Amino acid sequence: MLQATGAILAGGISPDLPTNKAFIKISGHRIIDIIIKKLRNTFSEIIIISNDIQHFDKLGLSVYPDLIPRLGPVSGIHAALHYASYDTVFIQGCDMPFLNMQLVEYMCQELGNYDVIIPEVNSKWEPLAAAYARDTLPIFDRSLKNYHLKLVQILDLLNIKSVPESELKAYGNVKEMFFNVNDMLAVNQANIIAHRYLTPLIE
Fold it and tell me: pLDDT tens digits, residue range 131-156?
């Protein structure tokens, strides 16, 4: 069990889905339940960041809103770093059910003197599946207050270690691990992916 915080960013509204992404069902299970089950076996603390607290308050976890609301994922990461009890905070988007937890553990354990350990897929960072040092909070706070809301530009200010695809492949199918459920086509594809797993998504 990692002495770290797993933070689920659950602001997942999509005009192409009938409900919040977190409550879409994959292989008969809501994505939020799949993610919580996986994180619960890994992290000493799990929190949810959402401005719709009433939708998540029956999950048995602490749910917190953005401190500076409605400014996208930067607000969510900022809130997670603020509310986390541990110095290492793993940020996970609520639409990514297939992350490999061995990879997650590796990123958290490697954080060390870095600000962020982040996967790099197709030459792009995956900031909503990355390990952050809690002491990066002042940088996110300053960026929000100055309305600097492009996450990539904020990450450029930090000491980052990226995990390239050549390393990610050791943990599974990279495309599937970082698959986002953003619309109904993606829901159908996610069900196909889920059925290829040898073990249930929730046991």
Answer: 999 999 999 999 999 999 999 999 99
Cα separation values, 195 from 38, 101, 199, 201, 203, Å: 17, 19, 9, 9, 14
**Phi and psi dihedrals of 192, rounded to 5?**
-65, -45
Q: Domain range holding 63?
A: 2-196
75 found inside a domain: yes
The domain tally of the chain equals 1
CATH number of the domain enclosing 7: 3.90.550.10
199 or 75: whose pLDDT is higher?
75
First to last CA, the chain: 19
Tell me if 184 is assigned to some domain.
Answer: yes
Residue 169: name the closest of 120, 127, 105 by CA.
120
Q: Is residue 7 part of a domain?
A: yes
User: Tens digit of pLDDT for each residue in 62-109?
Assistant: 999 999 988 889 999 999 999 999 999 999 999 999 999 999 999 999
What is the C-alpha to C-alpha distance for residues 29 and 200, in angstroms, rounded to an integer?
10
Distance CA 150, CA 155 (A): 9
